[in-house]
Design brief:
Helix content: 40-55%
Bound molecules: iron/sulfur cluster
GO molecular function, one term: FMN binding
Keywords: Cell membrane, Membrane
Largest sheet: 5 strands, antiparallel
Protein name: 4Fe-4S binding protein
Pfam families: Fer4_5 (PF12801), FMN_bind (PF04205)
Radius of gyration: 33 Å
Shape: globular
Structural class: alpha+beta
Subcellular location: Cell membrane
Distance between the termini: 53 Å
């Protein structure tokens, strides 16, 4: 019977996942395979439908210009007429969207500089795959048609700027549309300037002071006269071999003091004699495994890897703009392999204003192996002392993530206030539960209902800030491939939420988030409570404990499954993460999606009327991911010795987290505080009821209840005397404050010797074997030792640049699994409560999985953090 039900459940789950997957696969340009020639062929329009973005055009030129574009022609009376220009966004800019990858867009612009159309060729935005229909992005880009490229187009209605034209955003995809707006405007402006539609903005020329410049390289760097642009192999998707991809130093040479420090008096005079007015010289020296000059450079051609960008102006270099840099006069110059002086020949360039050195490169996507255009830049601005009047005032545009934060400031403040309120209420739990009774829990439930309502309405439906397991997967991948703060900062509420979740898990476990703040969890429990009030109570039920104890593992399986799949295909993992009904419920709306999604989310909400939080208990991969570290929360709930045989509070535990021995499984507990109300209630908690009655019969007064959950003794106990315990408690052997029986590791015997204890404990974390375990499981422990040696060699090879991070982390993962087996045989205990405390208990398999997984994650992260800055990883 039980296996039948299990398999039926699994089959239903697979079916739903399949439907979700096929529904998602209908998206047209998500991770679309684009022809390899798209980036390189001169015949751009042979590979993409240029006619769609330039209606009426019948002919297209080859790619021309830098950055490239094609000309579009019509035929009128047999004559060819220029209609406008078509260009590919990734030829021009490298602006990542929410996924961290660019949205590849084909853009059309007429000869007057008005957009004629745009087509999304490829995107990697998960939200457009599974949450918001892709047509929304198409609708968004249609707003540009007919707009002049020089117009001030902004997302949303601009209240302060009369010149700004507001564009309708896509709710729930703000980051994507902000990035796309930048793409459209930057690409359009680059081409418009090249073809003469937009006139360059003339900046006032720099006037130099007679300030002295330092003579040493380091001092010039310290004051900012020389800048450094460093690119690591992993930045371009290559494996690190202990050598930089490119380390580049550069600076501006026309400024007399700086120029003389770098070139010497003669060198500077010689260079200046070759420059005309409005010509500017910069120098670059570099070392690394690649070349900034580019291997494809031929005489007469263009240096296609370096550019100088100032405002909307981009300056590229031909061979005539190149001069040899034979030596650098400043003392202490680093070793370099390549050097050059480039001449910017333009009256639009001004050394008084900041400019950027840009290096263009092809990046290999480590997950898909595809190549994509990318650029790296570093700002240069002459120090104020070399400019008459100092540096001019420059209005800077904020990065995308900052714009989003500023735009949502009131929401962010409101959200932080909500989180602070929840933490404050929970921090006062002892007072609240003491004021409540089993029959009247208003002191706990009213603030909780308020927080639930705010969480559902404001966090879930309004701000769409429901955390998801996909964010956990993204972290793993970001750590593995490339950590970008921008990626995480792009959604401020989610960013703040995750910091709160991480901190609260360390203190109290996942319960504060899951039980009080998760929008979906709150919604389902609210439905359950409402249904109970509306007369459905008699139909409400809990699964039998035995079933619950089996089914609760499903969510862990789903989480590990998603994590494993994500290493093969993040796209597939994101699709399968639709097992979370969050997007359907909050982002898109229950009735705005294909029926399988609606059916799935609707069913879960429907079942929630009868079973308390069915999704949280059995399916939620996010809940599972958060439950793992909850094993090591610092502060648990209070228990009395009698809780063991009594377990009366288990009846009211909607999470079924209290076992027959009265022990609380912190991974399952959602901190509803029901058991804590009972703990202090002398009309509900059996030992307290008993003592109350005894005192009543004996005519004794009732003293207040102490923090240990017992009446304060009428006669003060002598110091050091054991606390009051009933006869029942005295008979109980189990310690209900711990999920399993207490244990005492041999190393924990260092009485009074703190340093010795810390050393012994550190060793215990690092060395999973024991003499006793070795005698019992010779083969397993021997194999474990061999594996550990192999993993150590792997780390050393990786540090020497001989192995990729992926291989090392694969081994680390494999070793962690094996360590669980080794420790269960040799050191089967875990710590209970604060990490600095000295309470230990026996470990079951799940405890050990959580302990080893968490410990090795911390060790791995520490090794990464240590080795990366040293250039060893
Ligand atoms: S288990 Fe999942 S849905 Fe439930 S409260 Fe936790 S995160 Fe939310
Ligand atoms: S009753 Fe106690 S153990 Fe059960 S969920 Fe609530 S706080 Fe946790």
């Amino acid at each position: 019977m039980s296996s039948n039900l299990n398999s039926l459940f699994l089959r239903c789950l697979c079916w739903v996942l399949f439907l979700c997957w096929t529904g998602g696969a209908l998206a047209t340009s998500y991770e679309a395979q684009l022809p390899a020639e798209l980036n390189s062929s001169p015949r751009l329009c042979d590979f993409v439908p240029c006619g769609e973005v330039m209606p009426g055009a019948v002919e297209f030129s080859e790619r021309k210009g830098r950055p490239p574009y094609v000309e579009a022609y019509s035929r009128v009376a047999g004559k060819r007429q220029l209609m406008g220009y078509v260009f590919l966004s990734t030829d021009i800019v490298d602006i990542p969207a929410y996924s961290g990858k660019p949205v590849v867009t084909l853009i059309g612009m007429d000869a007057e500089g008005r957009f004629t159309g745009s087509k999304i060729l490829k995107h990697s935005e998960p939200i457009l795959l599974l949450g918001i229909p892709e047509s929304e992005l198409v609708k968004f880009t249609r707003q540009y048609v007919g707009r002049f490229v020089g117009d001030k187009l902004e997302i949303g209605k601009s209240g302060q700027d009369d010149e700004a034209i507001g564009l309708d955003a896509i709710t729930g995809a703000t980051v994507t549309v902000i990035a796309q707006n930048q793409v459209m405007l930057r690409c359009g402006a680059e081409v418009a300037k090249q073809v003469g539609i937009m006139k360059p903005v003339l900046l006032p020329a720099a006037k130099f002071t007679a300030a002295e410049a330092p003579r040493s390289w380091q001092e010039l760097m310290d004051e900012g006269s020389i800048q450094f642009l460093g690119i690591k192999p992993e930045d371009v998707g290559k494996e690190g071999r202990g050598q930089a991809y490119l380390d580049m130093w550069f600076g501006y040479l026309n400024q007399p003091a700086v120029g003389k420090s770098l070139l010497g008096e003669e060198g500077y005079a010689s260079l200046m004699s070759r420059l005309k007015p409005d010509e500017h010289a910069i120098f670059i020296i570099a070392r690394g495994s690649d070349s900034f000059k580019g291997s494809g450079f031929v005489r007469g051609g263009i240096y296609d890897r370096v550019q100088v960008r100032q405002g909307m102006e981009t300056h590229t270099f031909r061979d005539l703009d190149y001069l040899n840099l034979y030596s650098v006069a400043a003392s202490g110059v680093p070793d370099y392999r390549e050097s050059a002086i480039f001449i910017i020949r333009s009256g639009n360039f001004s050394a008084a204003y900041p400019w950027q050195l840009v290096l263009l490169a092809n990046k290999v996507d480590p997950e898909s192996g595809a190549r994509q255009f990318t650029s790296f830049h570093r700002e240069y601005w002459l120090p104020a002392k070399y400019l008459e009047g100092g540096r001019p005032l420059v209005e800077r545009t904020d990065p995308t993530w900052l714009k989003v934060w500023k735009g949502r400031l009131p929401e962010i403040i409101g959200f932080i206030a909500l989180l602070a309120f929840a933490a404050l209420v929970y921090g006062q739990r002892d007072r609240l539960v003491r004021r409540s009774t089993r029959k009247d829990k208003r002191w706990v439930s009213l603030p909780k209902y308020f927080i639930w309502t705010a969480s559902i309405v404001f966090v879930g439906f309004h701000a769409m800030a429901q955390p998801s397991v996909t964010q956990v997967l993204t972290w793993f991948h970001a750590m593995l491939y490339q950590w970008k703060w921008e990626l995480f900062l792009s959604d401020p509420l989610i960013f703040v939420f995750w910091w709160f979740i991480i901190l609260s898990i360390f203190f109290w476990g996942r319960g504060l988030f899951c039980g009080w703040l998760c929008p979906f969890g709150s919604l389902t429990e609210m439905l359950y409570k409402l249904a109970g009030r509306l007369g459905l109570k008699r139909f409400q039920f809990k699964l039998p404990q035995v079933w619950h104890d089996r089914l609760k593992w499903l969510k862990y399986g789903i989480f590990y499954g998603l994590l494993g799949i994500s290493f093969f295909s993040m796209g597939l993992a994101e699709m399968l993460a639709e097992v979370e009904p969050f997007k359907t419920t909050f982002l898109v709306g229950l009735f705005n999606r294909a029926w399988p999604y609606t059916l799935f989310a609707g069913s879960l909400l429907g079942i929630s009327l009868f079973i308390e939080r069915p999704f949280c208990k059995y399916l939620c991969p996010l809940g599972a991911a958060l439950a793992l570290p909850s094993t090591f929360r610092w502060f648990g709930l209070k228990r009395k010795q009698e809780c063991g045989p009594c377990a009366a509070c288990a009846v009211g535990c909607g999470s079924l987290a209290i076992d027959a021995a009265g022990r609380i499984d912190q991974r399952e507990c959602l901190l509803c505080l029901d058991c804590m109300v009972m703990y202090y209630d002398d009309h509900a908690c059996p030992p307290l009821v008993q003592e109350r009655k005894q005192r009543g019969k004996a005519g004794q007064s009732l003293t207040p209840i102490g923090s240990d959950g017992y009446y304060i003794p009428i006669k003060p106990l002598p110091a050091g005397a054991p606390a009051h315990k009933s006869a029942v408690a005295a008979r109980s052997k189990a310690d209900p404050t711990m999920l399993t029986d207490p244990a005492l590791p041999p190393y924990a015997d260092h009485e009074g010797d703190l340093i010795g204890l810390i050393a012994a404990e550190t060793w215990d974390h690092l060395w999973p074997w024991s003499h006793h375990g070795f005698q019992r499981q010779r083969a397993v422990q021997g194999l474990g030792l061999a594996l550990a040696v192999t993993v150590t060699v792997m780390w050393i090879l990786a540090a020497m640049g001989q192995l990729s991070e992926g291989v090392v982390l694969g081994w680390w993962f494999g070793w962690s699994l094996f360590e669980v087996v080794v420790r269960l045989g040799s050191k089967p205990y875990v710590k209970e409560g604060p990490w600095l405390g000295r309470r230990y208990r026996k470990a079951d398999t799940m405890d050990m999985v959580c302990y080893v997984g968490f410990k090795n994650l911390l060790i791995g992260a520490a090794l990464f953090i240590l080795l990366k800055p040293l250039g060893l990883f």
